[in-house]
Amino acid sequence: MAPSLEYYEDISSGELPIKAIPTKINGVEAISGLQLDQTDKHDIVLKTFRAFIADLCQQFGGGHPGGAMGMAAIGIALYKYVMKYSPTNAGYFNRDRFVLSNGHTCLFQYLFMHLVGFKSMTMEQLKSYHSDRTDSLAPGHPEIENEGVEVTTGPLGQGVANAVGLAMATKHLGATYNRPGHTVVDNMTWCMIGDACLQEGVGLEAVSLAGHWKLNNLAILYDNNNITCDGSADVACTEDINTKMQACGWNVIDVYDGDHNVTGIVQALLTARISQKPTFINIRTIIGIGSSATNNAKAHGAAFGVQDVAQIKKNFGLDPEKHFEISDDVYSFFDDVKHRGEKLEAAWNTTVEDYEVQYPALAKEFKLRVQGKMPEDWTKFIPSKDQLPSKPTASRKSAGIVCNSLAENASNFLIGTADLTPSVNLAYKQQQDFQSPDFVAACGMTGDYTGRYIHYGIREHAMCAISNGLVAFNKGTFLPVTSTFFMFYIYAAPAVRMGALQGLQQIHIATHDSIGTGEDGPTHQPIALPALYRAMPNLLYIRPCDSEEVAGAFITAIEATSTPSIISLSRQNLTQYPQYSSREGVQRGAYVFIEDSAADVTLIGIGSEMGFTVQTRELLQKEYNINARVVSFPCQRLFEQQSREYKESVLRYKSGKPIVVIEAYAINGWERYADAGISMKSFGKSLPGAVAYKHFGFEPSVMAPKIKGFVDHVKLEGVESLRGDFRDLNGSMSYGLEH
Amino acid sequence: MAPSLEYYEDISSGELPIKAIPTKINGVEAISGLQLDQTDKHDIVLKTFRAFIADLCQQFGGGHPGGAMGMAAIGIALYKYVMKYSPTNAGYFNRDRFVLSNGHTCLFQYLFMHLVGFKSMTMEQLKSYHSDRTDSLAPGHPEIENEGVEVTTGPLGQGVANAVGLAMATKHLGATYNRPGHTVVDNMTWCMIGDACLQEGVGLEAVSLAGHWKLNNLAILYDNNNITCDGSADVACTEDINTKMQACGWNVIDVYDGDHNVTGIVQALLTARISQKPTFINIRTIIGIGSSATNNAKAHGAAFGVQDVAQIKKNFGLDPEKHFEISDDVYSFFDDVKHRGEKLEAAWNTTVEDYEVQYPALAKEFKLRVQGKMPEDWTKFIPSKDQLPSKPTASRKSAGIVCNSLAENASNFLIGTADLTPSVNLAYKQQQDFQSPDFVAACGMTGDYTGRYIHYGIREHAMCAISNGLVAFNKGTFLPVTSTFFMFYIYAAPAVRMGALQGLQQIHIATHDSIGTGEDGPTHQPIALPALYRAMPNLLYIRPCDSEEVAGAFITAIEATSTPSIISLSRQNLTQYPQYSSREGVQRGAYVFIEDSAADVTLIGIGSEMGFTVQTRELLQKEYNINARVVSFPCQRLFEQQSREYKESVLRYKSGKPIVVIEAYAINGWERYADAGISMKSFGKSLPGAVAYKHFGFEPSVMAPKIKGFVDHVKLEGVESLRGDFRDLNGSMSYGLEH
User: Start and end of every Transketolase-like pyrimidine-binding domain (chains A, B) (predicted)?
Assistant: First the structure.
């Protein structure tokens, strides 16, 4: 679906007030051809808006006024003229998505939402910015939980990648469900950025992908005030950003007088709407305009002070004695927006109704997607235990077996990889790549926008940040899967975190975990990373020990509709334990793997190290006459959610027998459950996987005598003696027994 | 010091074999003007090299052959002709630095090191690649511990930023210490990359900075084989990389036949040497050249198989029956390299000797820098306790007080910030920015290459990866300080980790920690991140509670010469405890803050939450007649290094009294030391800092009764009952008392 004049006419059928088509794309100068005959009105809105922001920050002596003030004219262009949305129903499915990637300028969004009539953004709420109200809808950065906010932003650069995900969502849904004369999805994504978002690597990664995918339904609006916290942005960035964006496959439009030229900005936005490529609109603005900190870094993140706020109003010809003043004229200027939004939504509803008549089967699926539901029969695509391999299998392979079937059959699954297709085993039958048809035609490759297999390139961070955008498009419409080596989810950590913070369900497939990954060496062997993801709120880090547990991990991840999951998998083959392992057990976080009522010790086994744990149990029995039970512990957070009784039944603290955990990661956090551990005390080493394990002491013949010594010690000293004396049974930092 | 022909002549005085000056810079086509009359010899070296790599990977059936084979001609150009280095003394100070950012092609480096005669890289060592030898000097990725390796690489993109740091180091030292006719530092940095390193955000951030700083002593050699794991690199990247690099301020040189055109590559490298900007050399190569996987992703990360290895040799006219064959001709081709290196080093030594005579004071300082030593009197720049503020002070301010004096006086301190100068308080008196003199002249700003204050822009990841490069230039020559909000060290985590892995001392100043940062909200409030850094091997995460502890944190960080430190600091004012706090205590990780021999409970207080802890202690006494002692616990890793006796003296487990930790982070890891905790169970919230603390229960009047209940419970049930029953005294996931 190439954009065209018709396309534009079509999207403007909801009576957007502007129908003029700009004549130049990619021009260096502002494009002319349209005059909005409302300059006077714009002027008073701009002044009112800016004075109000100054008041808001002055109220509690803090906040970010300068950027928002500078961006006022951009807001008029978007909220009054060009953006397709409905204040009455912020969630209307085919709305344009707006991302404020420079989230610290949130007052820009809040105040425009108030002016156009979003119900929740009352005057009282507006004024709760930086207050001590715990029910504020005006937090310091936009938060997805609140009406009219598409994604939570703040950590810079994330929003750019989120916007790419949102635009992909539209492209994919449009290509999949639109039919001639029945355009059910065709919204734009508008992404506002400041000077930082394209300094951040994640923004640059995403920009490269958007250009590659020719996401012409995406526009970045660059609030180019050229001021950052350290002063002129030039102090650290003097690149030619326009040329850089063009080199990445973007159209570029300059607007030089973006502090007031609403018409120019409107034209640029309309041009973006009919572009063949994503569009970068470089809008020069003036930070803190009207204040004494005009064009100064001081306008960025602090209130102006009482005097200066008064002076701002005087400069604007407003009454310095009045605060939070919005005249009826200003409100009435935006009067038409609500009605227009309702008409846009009604028009879309009609379109969908017609569509249901013409394409009932497709419409049924489409409505399920709109409702954000999994296909009802998804559970049948999860292999049963007896369909899973019984021979030693790498859990990354098991994950492929489980996920491929889901991917083939569930249209909401979007499988992605950071260039590790041959390693992560997620390519599935009849897989189609997500690609621009233009690209495919030019390169002789396959794929189009209906494709559900995404090559993110070697861009782990953008992959996960884009994935957040895909989910945020409409919760449940997509269940994206990302994939790379577990170690490289450290690159993606800021985005994984934002997914958890926002409750954006997705599945991160993290292969090659622990030191078992082998020869690639310490750079590729995660040691500390699990501590981050186990501590992260609203994230499930699941480390299954065999194929059955992998199935359990997927079921858990799919059922966690407001929580992202990381499924942590081995490179190497793992012994399968169909006699012990349980998908239901995974869902409870930990469970009894091998029971022994006469146990002297409980061993906690996890993921790729379960084999060693079971073997150690056998050796303890055979060589030392020590009975051990084994607990499988794939997910700490799920276990924490269990009842106290269940926990006791699994770990049997009351038995007074010690508990030893075996995992080739840093121990941090296991002290909650275990009395002693065999873990990693240093970074790893480049050795074949099995040799690496041996090198670091993960060998049953080495572990068994250590555990025996520990069990003997506990028998002698009593289990009470273990308090405050967690035993590291290997490594140089251990103390106690070995000393 | 602008580069010039003289400059080039000067650096080539060590008898590099090439003196021709190329005539074109930034040309689109390969530059002509030089013919190396050794094409036949190159041909046999290329074939031998490629067959040998195939043998190496075949030996143990794994590894990364394809890229290294493709890059062979680049290696000849570098190692035989252009690079200034000495195989006899890999550490010679003024050597060119070589970074293999595409570290998986390590065999490229290992084999050339062998051919030119690096002592450690024997045939036996070469063949230990992917073996089970724990003393291998040929690990799966280059490791800094080994001779001839400047930085450990593997996680893609890092090397690009490391190389920027290495080039900055040269620029800074040159500008600071070189005098007319006495050039003591002027080496180049050559950075080899593959298709991934400029897809990764960290690479792109670093590239932008290198262009801004006009680091003309830096060249990127792009091994453009256009193949990644997923196939053609085009599948995810179709940008115009040359234009992009030019837009970032780089010269661009194309080499189209880089698989064999040694002369063309040499010319490009020489052109880079005299460029006014950093140079990007786009060299087209052929992955897996000669194999059946030529130009195929299969050549990337797997052995070719016995048959194909034989076929490769046949294709090259070599004997398929012979393995690991290197003829005398091939060795002798590199014969001159060693001798040349020795002469280069000798010439440098003479230069330094003359310099010592002419500039004795400067030379004394320079030699200290070469030896990697702090100024001897550094301790006198650390304020004593009575010089520190006694009124409530934000610990970020305390850090400024301690660090500014060091920065003013210690020439090895390089202070950097990711655009948070007004927030992190690290700007010091007479601070000079690190900037290109050209830029300064053009913009009317201040600074030059002697500057020791670095504006990294909003590029946290590149900041820390560049910092790694600065340290790696020569351990101890620089002690870089980076700074941003603690939360944004999650962006930098991959680089912070590489610093820890490589033992690269530096200080990361992480301000605005915990929920006390306030209104910016959950996006800016770290909860899980401390768990990562506390678990990370060879990293000190230090969270001081007042100015005295901040001084202790700096002393600790400065004395940890092979370990990076993160000093975690508050945005808000903190009560100062000169009567309790101790810099020596910080160095032991934890210490008794307030002793009470009759204590019913030990409270662990940390960093910004110490004030609440002390107040809670007072309230427990006053309201509930419960005696509490307080332990300050700024650093878990340092505490782990203490003796068992010391630990017991601090935490007094044997007293049988319970221990409660109070910290506004995820609890994970504290279970090792405490029996119960008041911590964060969710992400934070946008509220004024003090209100946020209150909202999440960090209020003495809320905490005291909870702790009282817990103490009562322990009295009743006995301390033994706490095993396996860690108490979360707040939050929805707690169990036990509250149920």
Answer: 393-576
